[in-house]
Amino acid sequence: MATALSKPPPGFVTLSALDAGHLSLPEHMFVNDADPVKKNLVPSLSFLIRHASPDGSVTNLVFDLGVKRDLNYTPAQQNELDIWRPLITETDCAKSLRNGVADAPGGASNGVLLDPTKDIDYIIISHAHWDHTGTPSDFPTATFAVGSGTLDLFQNGAGPAYPSIFFNKDELPALRTVEFPPVVRTGVYGNEPFAPKHTPLPSNTQAKPPAVAASWAWKPFGDLPNALDFFGDGSLYVVDTPGHIYGHVNLLARLGERRYVYLAADCCHDRRLVTGEKEIGLYDDGHGGLRSIHTDTEEARRSLERLKTFLKNHRAEGNEVELILAHDPVWRKENVHACWPGKV
């Protein structure tokens, strides 16, 4: 729910990182020329974004929910959790919101900073993978927003790579969830017979998207071909980022006149893919071939290249753009001050 607090001027947001569990990534599944047995313990970061309205209220939005604290996943997902162990779930998204992030200045509060049951207006889920969907039931009053096709993906899966057994049909509250408009695509990706279909809002919806949602549309923003102005004032853009899994989106948050943060979710999983030190890793697909962690490796590679071009050109124009990956332990270690109740 919106609360009257000290706030940034209209057109900007504030952003804070949230601890939402940890998992271990086998390095060879994410970058090339990797140690075949090395695992890296990484965070699954969530983010609190606070948006000021002209009427003096503040809207609270959470991007991604991380790992379920009770690991209550489907049986098929449970069977694969060993790949990602060690897992740490002691601090989840809801706890970080309530008490602050433990090692952040002002964190580990005995009081409630934000109550997940009533103080969160919106939750944007970047994509349907288990380490980003968290525990939606912790947020009984929030409106959820997801990429087009995500609700169908939870219900029916999407082809051989994503059978329905890997998803919980009731993962998100259907009556409180809105999908972003579909993106018209050329080529194969997103047009396969099994690609999930867009789910329109039902007549009995309880979702309460921003007033501008009726005019949401994908438009170019710099080198990003498809960006959607979430609040309608240029403070927060949803960025279509195909390749990783159907419905995958990123966020671009405007913190100041020329200061931005790009939340890349699983556009890539290792900062060396952005610097060019590494390439996307390929590993045995179990059927005599090779695959990557992405549904469509080439499409994911194109999304990453667009991101890199955007960062380079936007910075060349005099803008400060900070890139944050969902699973970057180095960023988390170096930016304790940016964790809630601190700000990026």
TrEMBL record:
SUPFAM superfamilies assigned to the protein according to its UniProt record, in alphabetical order: Metallo-hydrolase/oxidoreductase
Cofactor dependency: Zn(2+)
Tree of life domain: Eukaryota
MF GO annotations: hydrolase activity; metal ion binding
Protein name: Metallo-beta-lactamase domain-containing protein
Keyword terms of this UniProt record: Hydrolase, Metal-binding, Zinc
Similarity remark: Belongs to the metallo-beta-lactamase superfamily.
Regions that span the bilayer: none
Species per Swiss-Prot/TrEMBL record: Trichoderma harzianum CBS 226.95
